[in-house]
Write a structure and sequence with these properties.
Chain A is mainly alpha-helical. In chain A, 74% of the residues lie in helices and 3% in strands. The chains are: A mainly alpha, B alpha/beta.
């Protein structure tokens, strides 16, 4: 049970889980950090990313490396319509956004049930081989997820740290009013942040659907895990969310394997409760009254 | 304004034109049937199967002019309620259907939680109810001396023994069984009977649980792989979970046989994981290639899209049995209809051969249907009948 082979398997699994959690929660925290919107429709956006990949890659058979970003970009582009019609009314209104966007989430999920039916589908993996490395079994599809998620996260880091718009976005995330005073066009930044946030959620949804299952309800758990990762790392904190997602994914894999799922859930959620008591602003968040 | 007047005028003309037809359709009285099923959430595929099966049976009756009982011809209508695969919601739905809608004939809920939640509402009122959940208490309960509940399919108490016997005969190399189930009352109850069956045949059993709603099973599967399991039994896991358990078991290097003794839905599993399902053995209640089902399959595909869930055929059959019992009783009185149902042994059901009720010895009431079941093997993405088994329960 504690052999190096099992440990290796546990680590690979933990990294793959963390990659998906980080991608979903990064977009979630970006929307909160900049627009003060709690996007409870984030899981539904991930679900739409899954269906977009199903059609673009699974049905139209476009090459995977084109299909994956194209699917995510299609959902993000369509979501810009929702940004105009719905999201814009909730910017800087945290509590109203929770209820309003929960409603949007349900509307999207049940629209998906009407359009695609409730049954679960699969998206073929670009590499469905299981590789054997000594005693280790490496799932090709998980390796693809880890690789592409790493590239996406690196691109996001480079964008936010070394481009004009990325720096403006980070400035708006820290303090919208000061950013506006400095001449940043917040309307444009809102749209850009929204597009990037939904792009990452849709990409995570594609990974999830490809690795697990595609169904109208697949976003529910992702939304919950994203919310926990964001709370754990600190609402609005981008490095915090990466840390939160990594901790959640690794904890689920390590505790689940060595101590069983009940212990895993108990310890993980217990730790979140304790953290929120002693450090309500999360691991890398900033206290509200500072 | 002009548009409004125009629409009104069109409405009046349309009403006048349709008037005579509407009054002829209204000659038949309405007989309401209730359906409680999971129509949202993770159990939707099952709930939709139930509803669609009943709808097809109702369409058939209405298409033939209605159901004549006691000299009155009725058009059947369905009042559906969503219980979200939840006992409390099922109880609320049953209360509304029975006390507000006056429903006396009810199909569902799907599964055990809803059935157990609704029975305390339906049985004191003498409502005839068809359910499919596996829980023993669905039939063996405080109402069993005057029970109006009938189980439309086999439960694990009926099929687990023949399945385990079949494994014992067909797979002599299998010594150790792995069983993984959701960590709740339904999951724990579902596997206890199964484990007992395996152990009674001399198999060693390793079991563990996961949190319901989880999609990541690698940790629990890694635990299983380290135990040296020969055959992994997915028991009554829902199709979505069962599919992921298969896929992820292969990804962590499990090379033994995978089988599911319970649940319904080979098609759903293949749709969910594609070629990863190849070689998988599955208990099922429907063989779509069975000629007896061809008319049903045609009617289903003409009306709906998506895979045909086994519960659709099961509830279509249950509805057909009920309609025959109503005709025989020639009254809507549920005691008389219940008595007819009990006495219909030998009546040729749409797909399952002569009607056969059992359960007196095990549940204390003969309201458990006996139907054949299949062990299907997934070959190139299709379910192929590996064995057809009629359980010997008399």
């Amino acid at each position: 049970m504690f052999s190096p082979a099992v440990l290796g398997q546990v680590l690979i699994n933990g990294i793959s889980l963390s990659a998906i959690y980080i991608l979903v929660s990064l977009g979630f925290t970006l929307l909160f950090g900049i627009m003060r919107v709690v996007n409870f429709a984030h899981g539904a956006m991930a679900m739409l990313g899954g269906y977009a990949l199903y059609y673009i890659y699974g049905e139209a058979n476009l090459p995977y490396l084109i299909a994956m970003p194209l699917a995510a970009a299609s959902v993000a582009a369509l979501a810009l319509v929702l940004e105009r019609l719905v999201y814009r009314w909730f910017y800087q209104k945290m509590f109203q956004s929770m209820i309003g966007l929960l409603g949007l989430d349900m509307a999207l999920v049940y629209s998906a049930v009407i359009i695609w039916g409730p049954h679960e589908r699969s998206i073929p993996s670009p590499i469905d081989t299981v590789y054997r490395l000594g005693p280790l079994f490496l799932s090709g599809s998980k390796l693809v997820v880890i690789g592409l998620a790493a590239v996406t996260l690196a691109a996001f880091y480079l964008f936010t740290h070394f481009t004009k718009y990325g720096l403006a976005m980070r400035a708006a995330a820290q303090d919208v009013e000061t950013a506006e005073v400095q001449g940043i066009n917040t309307d444009r930044i809102y749209m850009l942040a929204f597009f990037i946030a939904i792009f990452m959620a849709a990409m995570a949804g594609g990974f999830f659907a490809q690795n697990y299952i595609l169904s109208p309800f697949m976003g529910e758990r992702q939304l919950m895990m994203a919310f926990i990762a964001v709370i754990l790392g600190g609402m609005g904190s981008i490095p915090g969310v990466a840390l939160g997602g990594l901790i959640l994914g690794m904890a689920e894999s390590i505790l689940g394997t060595y101590f069983g799922s009940t212990t895993s859930v108990f310890v993980t959620f217990g730790a979140v409760i304790v953290l929120l008591i002693v450090r309500p602003w999360g691991l890398l968040g900033i206290p509200e009254n500072r | 304004m002009k548009l409004t007047k125009g629409l009104l005028a069109a409405g009046v003309i349309a009403t006048a034109a349709l008037g005579p037809q509407m009054s002829s359709a209204q000659e038949n009285e309405e007989l309401k049937l209730g359906v409680i099923a999971a129509l949202s959430g993770g159990g939707t595929a099952w709930g939709q199967g139930l509803l669609r099966g009943v709808e097809l049976a109702v369409d058939e009756v209405n298409g033939a002019g209605g159901l004549t009982i006691g000299g009155t011809t009725y058009d059947l209508t369905i009042t559906p309620f969503d219980d979200q695969y939840n006992a409390a919601q099922a109880k609320t739905a049953a209360e509304r259907l029975v006390h507000e809608e006056g429903i006396r004939y009810l199909f569902g809920p799907v599964g055990s939680p809803g059935a157990l939640g609704s029975i305390p509402v339906t049985q004191p009122e003498g409502v005839i109810q068809f359910v499919d959940g596996y829980a023993t208490k669905i039939l063996d309960n405080e109402y069993k001396d005057d029970l109006f509940v009938f189980r439309t399919g086999l439960s694990s108490s009926e099929f687990s023994k023949p399945v385990v016997d079949w494994i014992h005969e067909q797979m002599p190399d299998v010594k150790k069984i792995g069983v993984i189930a959701p960590n709740d009352a339904v999951g724990q109850q579902a596997i206890s009977a199964l484990i007992e069956r395996y152990e009674s045949q001399g198999f060693e059993v390793w079991s563990d649980f996961y949190e319901r709603g989880s999609k990541e099973f690698t940790p629990v599967l890694l635990r299983m792989v380290t135990q040296g399991v020969d055959l992994f039994d997915l028991n009554s896991n829902a199709p979505g979970e069962a599919a992921l358990l298969i896929k992820q078991a292969r990804e962590v290097g499990f090379s033994g046989q995978i089988l599911q003794a319970g649940g319904a839905g080979v098609r759903e599993i293949v749709d969910a994981i594609g070629s990863a399902a190849d070689g998988f053995l599955k208990y099922d209640v429907i063989d779509l290639n069975d000629p007896a089902l061809s008319d049903f399959v045609k009617a289903y595909e003409a009306k709906y899209s998506g895979p045909i869930n086994g519960l659709a055929s099961q509830y279509y059959s249950a509805a057909s049995i009920l309609f025959e019992a109503m005709k025989r009783a020639d009254t809507l009185d549920t005691i008389a209809v219940r008595d007819e149902l009990e006495n219909m042994e030998g009546w040729e059901t749409p797909f399952y051969g002569p009607l056969n009720w059992t359960g007196e010895d095990f549940y204390g009431v003969n309201h458990q249907i006996v139907i054949p079941f299949y062990i299907m093997k997934v070959v190139d993405g299709e379910g192929v009948v590996e064995a057809k088994i009629v359980p010997d329960l008399d």
